[in-house]
Amino acid sequence: MSTATPRKRRRRWPVVLVVVLVVLAALVVIAEFVLRGVVDRIIAQQVEQSLPSGATGEVEAHAKGIVIPQLISGQLDEVEISSEKLTIDGIPLAADVTARDVPVDGKGDVRDVDGHVRLAATSVKDLAKYSPLFDRLSLVDGGVELSGKAAVLGYDITYAAKGDVAAQDDGKGITITPKTVRITNSSLGLKVDSIPGVTNVPVEVCTARFLPEGLLVRSLDVTASEATVRVTADSLPLNEAGLQTVGSCS
C-alpha cells in the first residue's frame, strides 16, 4: 500500500493551516456576534430595572468596538444607551446616552456620561404642574411661553409671557425668565408692557429630583416642536441602588 511522500505531506500543511485559521476566525466572529447580543441585552435590562421611581421605559444598549477583549479586561470602553419610549412621572420623552468605562460585572461607576433628553411640545405642557407660578407651558423657538393669572390695576387678568430658558450653573435645574407679556383677557382692552411679579422674574424648576444623583443638566436647545436637554456626569453608578437615588435642589 502506497503512502504520501514527505514532500506531498509538506504541501498539505499550508492548506490545513489555512483551513484551521478560517474555522477559528469564523468561530471568533460567531462568538463575537453572540456575546455582543448577550452583552447589549444584559445592559439594557439592567438599566430598565434600575430606572428611578416613577420612570418606566424600553431601553436599548449597544457596546462599541470588539467586545471579546473588553469582556476579558472586565470593562466595556463605550456603551450607547437609548430609549424612544421613556416616561418620567407621566411625562413621555426620549433619551440617548453614551457612557465610558462600563464595568462588566455591573459593580462600580461608569465614567464620562454624556447624553441628550428630548421632549416633544406635547410633553412639555405637562411641566407646568411643577411650578405654582403659571398654569400652562408651551414651546416657542428659542424659549417657552407661559400662561397664568395676575392682578393689574385692580383687574384680574390672564396673560401669556414669552421667556428665555437656561440651565442653572449647578446643573440641578433650569431657569425660565419671562420677557414679553400680552394680556389674553381681550374683553378688558388692557395693554401692558410688563406685569409686576412676572416680567423678568426668574422661575426655577428643579430637574435634579427626576434624574439619578450626579447627572446634571448642562444646556438646552429649544424649538417650537421639541426641547433637547444635554445631561452629563463625571461618574454614575450603573446598579439599581445608584440609578434609583435621585438628586435634590436643596
Helix and strand string, N-terminal first? HEHEEEHEEEEEEEH
The total of helices stands at: 4
Radius of gyration: 28 Å
Q: What best-fitting shape do the alpha-carbon axes yield? A: elongated
**Broad structural category:** alpha+beta
Main sheet: which strands, in order across? 1-2-3-4-11-10
* Helicity range: 10-25%
Question: How many strands, which pairing sense, and closed or not: the largest β-sheet?
Answer: 6 strands, antiparallel
Describe this structure as you would to a colleague.
The chain contains four helices and eleven strands. With 250 residues, the protein is of the alpha+beta class. A six-stranded antiparallel β-sheet has the order 1-2-3-4-11-10. Strands 5-6-7-8-9 form a five-stranded antiparallel β-sheet.
Features of the shown structure:
250 residues; six-stranded antiparallel β-sheet; 24% helix; alpha+beta; 4 helices
